[in-house]
Design brief:
Blueprint: H1 10-16, H2 20-26, H3 39-45, H4 52-68, H5 81-114, H6 120-155, H7 159-189, H8 201-228
């Protein structure tokens, strides 16, 4: 069985074992936008010390248990770009299309009701709606302009089309970095979505759905930046 090393990048580890993202999230290690450096190099730059050997050991133990439970890793190198686009549409774009509007209503509700006593909810309200606006426009551009080009390139590969894809990829990566920063800010002002004492049910639902949004978005960005956008070279 494969054993991960500190010389592996977080992006490559999550590519093989998606649940490793839980360990990286806990230690505030970026595996999507900035996850293409060796894990040890990332740890060396962190202000808060993280025991790399302990971290990689925990990931390997979890991965072994995951494999022994009958799970199988996806070899993304054997998945065509158009198939990967379909996967991203089904698991991430569809999720956002369905989730952003109702979640907006919850974020607005707790800001309106609890904002006077919890001032951070004003910032959360502004950040979430900035995220919503950015992601809605971003998905339109991907679905209309970029994704169809991957299927077209599979059918008729040529240098002009490849260059066009590369240019659009770079624009999408810039967008990912921007929304990733928004997600990080929402996490920080809510203390990793830690509920205040006496939080009502709407508060609980909002924070739970925001935490799910964060997880889905990081996986979404990882699949595009580190797999789809690198599938054509």
């Amino acid at each position: 069985m494969r054993e991960f090393q500190l010389t592996d990048t977080p992006a490559d580890i999550v590519k093989i074992y998606p649940k490793a993202s839980d360990f990286f999230k806990k230690e505030k290690i970026d595996f999507c936008c900035g996850g293409d450096q060796p894990l040890q190099s990332i740890l060396d730059k962190k202000k808060r010390r993280v025991d790399g050997q302990q971290l990689i050991g925990l990931i390997n133990e979890s991965f072994q248990a995951w494999i022994e439970a009958g799970n199988k890793e996806i070899n993304w190198d054997n998945v065509s770009p158009s198939e990967l686009v379909d996967y991203i549409m089904q698991h991430h774009h569809h999720y956002l299309h369905e989730e952003l509007t109702p979640l907006s209503q919850f974020v607005t509700k707790i800001y309106r009701v609890h904002g006077p006593n919890h001032p951070h909810l004003e910032d959360l309200y502004k950040l979430f709606h900035q995220f919503k606006m950015e992601m809605e426009g971003h998905m339109i551009e991907e679905e209309r302009d970029l994704f169809p080009l991957f299927e077209k390139y599979e059918e008729e590969p040529n240098e002009a089309l490849k260059e066009h894809i590369f240019q659009l990829n770079n624009t999408m990566i810039d967008d990912h970095e921007f929304v990733g920063e928004i997600i990080q800010q929402m996490n920080e002002i809510t203390n990793d979505y830690t509920l205040p004492e006496g939080a009502c049910n709407s508060y609980r639902i909002t924070y739970a759905r925001l935490a799910e949004l964060e997880q889905n978005t990081y996986q979404h960005i990882h699949l595009e930046n580190n797999i789809l956008f690198k599938s054509i070279s």
